[in-house]
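Hi Q.,

Before the meeting this afternoon, I wanted you to have the magnesium ion prediction in hand. No need to reply - just skim if you have a minute. The sequence and ligand are here:
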Amino acid sequence: MIVVTGTPGSGKTAFARELSLLLRAKYLDVNAFARKAGLFSEYDARRRTWEVDSSRLAKALRKAVLGLKGDVVLDSHISHFFPSRYADICFVLRADLKTIYKRLKARHWPSHKVSENLEAEIFEVILTEARQLGHKVQVLDSSRRSAGSLARQAIKNIRLIRKNTGSGSLPN
Ligand SMILES: Nc1ncnc2c1ncn2[C@@H]1O[C@H](COP(=O)(O)OP(=O)(O)OP(=O)(O)O)[C@@H](O)[C@H]1O
Ligand SMILES: [Mg+2]
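Predicted structure with the ligand bound:
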């Protein structure tokens, strides 16, 4: 189980897609999963975002993916709520503030939403949450490296971890 998380615009999806292609792994969009499962509990009208019920998400994700064979890549800014004891590694994507700003502005997001996410990146909200939840965290910066190059680096790191823990195999 490979968790990919980070602030919106940090490059998670580009990276997670490359990684799942290279690993021939299943790719799971955790946002879509949570939406379908009705786990976005409350609408915050001021922020215009949905709040996720993290403990229900953790349980539902565990149930959905643990029976699956092979590698699974979980992609979302909420994917670190997947229980850390079942995850091999958690990649936290980051990017410098200018890069995140440009990427979010390109989506025509309202200014307050862009600022809120820049603040989250400055205060390392997701990185801190992932560590506090007990994940084996590796930070990847997407500002100056392509998603493909980051995915190749990630595979080297996954191989090392699996060599040390003796779990599973990866395609060559
Ligand atoms: N390593 C990279 N190098 C250059 N551009 C990138 C890289 N990663 C992502 N991008 C670009 O940045 C934008 C945002 O990337 P992406 O959609 O992967 O972010 P995200 O973290 O998944 O955001 P969200 O949380 O909103 O889903 C996209 O236009 C994407 O093509
Ligand atoms: Mg994404």
